[in-house]
Amino acid sequence: MKRIGILVIVLATFIAVANAQNAKSILDRTAEILSNKGGITAKFSISGQQAGTLAFKGRAFHASTPQAVIWFDGTTQWTYMKNNEEVNISKPDRNKQQMMNPYNFIMIYKAGYRYTAKAIGNSYQVHLTSTDARRNIKEMYITVGKKTYIPSQIRILQNKTWTTIDISNFKKANLNASTFKFNSKEYPNAEIIDLR
Question: Pfam family example for this protein (predicted)?
Answer without folding.
Answer: LolA_2
